[in-house]
Specification:
This protein has 434 residues and is mostly helical. Helix content is 68%, strand content 0%.
Length: 434
């Protein structure tokens, strides 16, 4: 074994120990709270009062005990998504202490904490493999990967006839509200960009087909001028970052580092430079510390406030159910929240939408438990696959699940399709050939 390879192997082993993971998750919890203090200086929607700091510290310290689950649980798809959920709920509990909105804050905090715990139980500990009734051969699976690339190319070609603009990230909002795609094409864009191409990229990379993996990244990037979303712009870079992290670290440490390292960099940069959000360091802080994490936590605050004073939806916001039942809201919830708070479209996770908006804080933990059982199907479908592959192929889904309801993530963004692909793919695919 070469010296660099030996160093990497030793680093992987050391950081995957229970003691190292414990220190890492607790340090991450501290960075999350420190980041929110800094976010409050830029975001009017997030409050901070030094007089309440001791309360927030006690709440965060108590809740951080939950993070110890990630030092003992084995890696699985639910571990990946669950750690992002933990970070979001920790952020909400911190924000909740300082909130000036008119909702029962103690009830909201207890509800969110219990909802996360109930969601994590199946996501972390239900891992029994599903019996494969229709496993694919290695040859047929590689044909399937080729088909994914071909369908992606055709979809991009068709979608580009509806919109294809090379504009800077700062100007995407000037055009994005005017975008319209046919229903089927809209679903294809979501499935391909969120599930199919990341899946193909991970498969090709671990099979050693670097050129085809590179093609998958190029196709992902081509969705940016079509959809004009930051998600499309940063997805290729994010997948490359996961490749590097998972090469240096074991899967569990990679998951934690995938949030901890970017947030720590953003916090240190903004502390050292004291830059505005319009500067390069400030834009990094805005993208990572504010938009990637703080916004998801802040959305829970807004949903708690709104639905403490307005009718619950009882799931009528789900497009399949809306025609079948009375709904007090004609527009999507993100638009309703935008019109109320004027913070832009307030997209939110299952904890806010299928939880607070649908059934209120008293029953929200039960919907979180149900969501955890659904997401645990990903653990069962991917059982027997290399952890690094599961991490890379599902790389963008935690970010999606922080910002959209579970129903949207499963159907519109192709999470259910990814589960199916994991289920049918051959378990011998990545075995070394003699």
């Amino acid at each position: 074994m070469s010296a660099p390879a030996g160093i990497i192997s030793d680093l992987r082993a050391r950081l995957d120990s229970k003691a190292a993971l414990t220190r890492l998750v607790l340090l991450h919890s501290a960075v999350t709270c420190l980041s929110l203090i800094e976010v409050a200086t830029f975001q009017l929607s997030i409050d901070f009062d030094p007089k309440r700091l001791w309360i927030a510290v006690l709440v965060a310290a108590g809740f951080s005990v939950v993070s110890l689950l990630f030092a003992s649980a084995r890696f699985c798809f639910g571990y990946f998504v669950g750690f992002y959920f933990y970070t979001m709920i920790l952020g909400f509990l911190w924000i909740d202490v300082f909130s000036d909105y008119n909702y029962p804050r103690s009830l909201a905090g207890v509800s969110a904490a219990l909802a996360l715990l109930l969601c994590l139980m199946p996501m972390l500990f239900i891992r029994a493999p599903l019996r494969q009734f229709v496993p694919m051969s290695n040859a047929r699976f590689e044909h399937l990967l080729t088909l994914i690339l071909l369908v992606s190319i055709v979809t991009i070609a068709v979608a580009s006839t509806y919109n294809f603009r090379l504009v800077s990230i700062a100007n995407i909002y000037d055009y994005r509200d005017t975008l319209e795609f046919p229903g089927l094409l809209r679903y294809l864009i979501g499935w391909i960009s969120s599930a199919l191409l990341p899946f193909a990229f991970a498969s090709y990379w671990l099979l050693g087909h670097r050129w085809r993996a590179g093609l998958a990244l190029v196709l992902l990037l081509l969705f940016y001028p079509i959809t004009l979303t930051k998600f499309a712009f940063f997805t290729p870079a994010w997948l490359i970052a996961l490749v590097v992290l998972s090469r240096l670290l074991e899967a569990r440490a990679s998951v934690i580092a995938s949030i901890f390292v970017p947030m720590l960099i953003g916090l240190l940069v903004i502390w050292v430079t004291e830059a505005s959000l319009r500067s390069i360091p400030g834009r990094y802080f805005d993208i990572v510390n504010i938009r990637m994490m703080a916004t998801a936590s802040g959305a829970l605050e807004l949903y708690n406030d709104f639905f403490a004073n307005h009718p619950l939806t009882w799931f009528c916001q789900i497009s399949v159910l809306k025609p079948l039942m009375h709904c007090p809201y004609d527009e999507p919830l993100a638009v309703v929240m935008q019109n109320t708070y004027d913070f832009g479209n307030v997209n939110a996770s299952l904890f806010a939408t299928e939880g607070i908006a649908s059934v209120g804080p008293w029953l929200a933990p039960l919907t979180a438990l149900a969501a955890g059982l659904v997401l645990a199907l990903g653990n069962r479908a991917s059982a027997g696959l290399p952890p690094r592959f599961v991490l890379m192929s599902s790389g963008v889904l935690p970010h999606i699940l922080l910002n959209v309801p579970l129903s949207v993530a499963m159907l519109t963004h192709g999470t259910a399709i990814l589960f199916l692909l994991w289920y049918v793919m051959p378990r011998t695919l990545f075995e070394e050939k003699p």
